[in-house]
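ok, trying the design again with the full structure, not the truncated one.
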């Protein structure tokens, strides 16, 4: 029973150190990432607690996505060097392109369904007109 706090402390230390190492240097708050690693290693429990409250990146909360799911908010610099910004769906070229592709696919699917129905109707009509021809093939 007395080992539980020690095990908890070790697990917290390992988790905090790995979390610090895996975080992006640009996202780390307060002091530079290498300094946080030193603080965590030199002051194990206190360093980890400081990391969680003062240094750990504050990622934006997930935003509601399509179909009720959640989509993580964009963060960090983009390839152009500017921070990513939310774009309204009607201003997003990728969304509009995807919308157009979806519309075209639905239209093509409907066209193919109509052609298939026409073909079935023609085949049924031919079978009615020539019921004996099926045995010749």
């Amino acid at each position: 029973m007395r080992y539980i706090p020690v095990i908890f402390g070790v697990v917290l230390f390992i988790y905090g150190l790995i979390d610090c190492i895996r975080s992006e240097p640009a996202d780390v708050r307060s002091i530079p990432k290498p300094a946080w690693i030193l603080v965590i290693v030199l002051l194990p429990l206190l360093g980890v607690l400081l990391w969680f409250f003062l240094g750990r990146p504050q990622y934006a909360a997930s935003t509601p996505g399509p179909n009720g799911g959640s989509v993580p908010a964009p963060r960090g610099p983009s390839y152009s060097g500017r921070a990513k910004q939310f774009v309204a769906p009607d201003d997003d070229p990728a969304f509009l392109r995807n919308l157009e592709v979806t519309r075209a696919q639905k239209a093509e699917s409907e066209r193919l369904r109509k052609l298939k129905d026409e073909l079935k109707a023609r085949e049924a009509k031919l079978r009615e007109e020539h019921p004996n021809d099926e045995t010749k093939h």
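Keeping the full-length input from now on. The two ends are 85 Å apart (CA to CA).
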